[in-house]
Amino acid sequence: MRSAAQDGRDNIARFLAAVHDRRPVSGLTHNFYRYPARFSPLFARAAIEAFSQPGDVILDPFMGGGTTLVEASALGRHSIGCDISSLAVFLTRVKTTALSENDLRRVEAWGHTLPEHLNLHRPPVRAVEWQQAGYQRHLPWPIRKTIELAIARLHELPRRRQQRFARCILLKVGQWALDCREHVPSAADFRCQLFECLESFCEGMREFREAVREHPVPGSRNALSISLHCSAADLPVFRGELESLPKRPALVVTSPPYPGVHVLYHRWNVRGRKESPAPFWVADCRDGQGASHYTFGDRRHRNLVRYFEGIRQSFAGVRQVIDASALVVQLVAFSDPDWQIPRFLEAMQEAGFGEAAPESLGIPVDGRLWRSVPGRRWFALIREALATSKELVLFHRPRPV
Fold this sequence. Notes:
Layout: H1 4-19, H2 41-51, E1 57-60, H3 67-74, E2 78-83, H4 86-96, H5 101-113, H6 128-132, H7 141-151, H8 160-178, H9 187-214, E3 225-229, H10 239-243, E4 251-254, E5 261-262, E6 268-270, E7 274-276, H11 278-283, H12 305-321, E8 327-333, H13 337-350, E9 353-355, E10 369-372, E11 379-380, E12 390-398
Parallel strand pairs: 1-2, 1-4, 2-3, 4-8
Antiparallel strand pairs: 5-11, 6-7, 8-12, 9-12, 10-12
Helix pairs in contact: 1-2, 2-3, 4-8, 5-8, 5-9, 7-8, 8-9, 12-13
């Protein structure tokens, strides 16, 4: 019979292996959308297994595409996350809502009736309000009209969760067709990809649903998963949502914006450098913010003062809602590590946290724990750098008040 100590050592070994794993994102509902700067599900899963117990509450205050919340639900943990992007909230809610088999069959039936309605010779069904607000900017006409025709049929799905799932499929195909592509595929190719995504989405949702069933939360019927549209600094304001959880978060697994690094979280790059807010239209949620809103300020700002103030305020909010003995595990890349790492740690200290050495957690490493990230294409400061091809794994605990 295995001992708890042996299980703990095995979990730490799996965590270390996950830190260095270079496999692409896959499994469950993780591939529903390629959210920028998303981190490895293997890392999130290993961190949750190594540093929490079934029934615990896991927090991600920069949830992005919902990786942490998906893995928490699949491992029998409650979870709560927040993000200032309404697109991130939409994605996370879709990815963490375990649809029933009846739901999936309705969406599949809806998808198979779409071909007759996606003929470009049909009269247009213009999304006038979205068009006037600029959300369709730079979209090629055949792709834009195909998406409009598909959205116009969403009313055929009777439940809101089914409609959101179908929107997410359209979002994924729109990203495939437009984001960072010089040559836009034809409407016929778009339709073919739509049906492929329909099948893969249903398969991924069935896998997620089965994982949730196999890992029930002790003493609870279902794992709670809460996605909030707010900044981490404002988490204490949402007392009602926090009080619906059985306990305070015992583990934070996250990846905040990276200092001095440009990541386009909220736009598609269409035919070169043309930016389009179209994903918000497809997801039926509003944007209205510039790039610096999602990255704590422009990367060219001197000394990144606004960025580090954002980190301080965010984790000060986190400090107020987590358990007094909680552990914070985060992945951060730095455009200039020599001065940014000390400043980041200073901001964490100002927020009420003290750094925990990996050795104190039973992780057998000498010094800091780094992770290499293959194929990264981000821009750091003025230089095209990159220090950002490596991420630092940081551990913190709340300091006594």
